[in-house]
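Researcher: Structure prediction, please.
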Amino acid sequence: MQRFFKNDDFQFGLEIVLGSVYREAADAGEALATAGRIKDGDADSWVREWSATAERVHASAEAACAQGRRASARSHYQRAASYYATALYTITASGQMDTREKLWRSQRDCWERAVELFATPGERVSIPYRDTPLPGWFFRAPDAAPGERRPLVVLNNGSDGATAQMWVQGGAAAAERGYHWMTFDGPGQQSMLFEHNVPFRPDWEAVLTPVLDAMLARGDVDGERVAVIGISQGGYWVPRALCFEHRFAAAVADPGVVDVLASWIKPLPEFMRKQLREGRQRAFDRIMRLTERVSPATRAALDFRGEPYGVAGDSRYDLYRAVARYRLGDETSNINTPLLITDPEEEQFWPGQARELYERLSGPRELAKFSAAEGAARHCEPLACAVRETRIFDWLDRYLT
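Model: Predicted structure follows.
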């Protein structure tokens, strides 16, 4: 496939935006015009141009809303949310970190406004979780009467995706198939990180079980037909939860993830991997400090990826050891929920792990391959929204209808 950027992070970020066009959460012309103004590999240029596009579209949303043009306002708000989220994608590598909170809050405001303006408006829900309830959004199927009992699809986000992206990643597909759907911010995700400083946790059953409890308490949810889709690092969260939570009718891991740390250690030379294995913290941290002095991009990437793990101090060794806890072990033998595992060609973060997860399971499971030839390669198949969701939902239909 023709590339727009040589920098792979930039290319992947653009692919996510272009894939969102299918569900009207972006516009191809706006996205390509913005990309055309960006200097390849320049994080400041990326943040500046996506922010400018987001602000322009956000202003159009406000104007349409003031004029009572609900459909236009909803369209503008959804696209602006995508563009703000895209601006944030490289914020830690830029010199504009002081704008991060403002950009995030603008992105969240656009998502909330779009939710209110959907043809069937979403419902804000609060999910009991320790001292800080998890914010969630419940969406009634468009053809369902208020209170009507229907199957439910839960969208479980990954490590850093915007909540608004869950519309693209399965919410819209669930709605048009007559299912209720919902999504939420879990520990370390979006508002739980940015507003409450609540970090990730590896035992995701402690998160997904309260979410399911809250949904089963609703009279409009068919408790026998609830499915969950894990997106990106959600491909670890969901299988981990399924080891202990057996009430879902079906589940999807997109893609399958067995060992989160694998994507972290892939760039490391073997001697540094050995230092990690042998517990040589001082030697590992010393080399990482030297590396980050000469490579600000490495420092920015680790700051960005490490923040949700909540590791205090500046030891990269401690961070890597914390991420090492996010690994599936023998507990996968407990999974009995039917599980669809996506396996995209050219998976850049966890290659081979979808097949590994599949082979570990003995219960009902299926491996869904996606190829470059059909335009569906790469992590979470960003440019193949239609191919991806029809394959996933055709499989889910077996358990929800």
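Model: The chain has a mean pLDDT of 97.
Researcher: Thanks, that helps.
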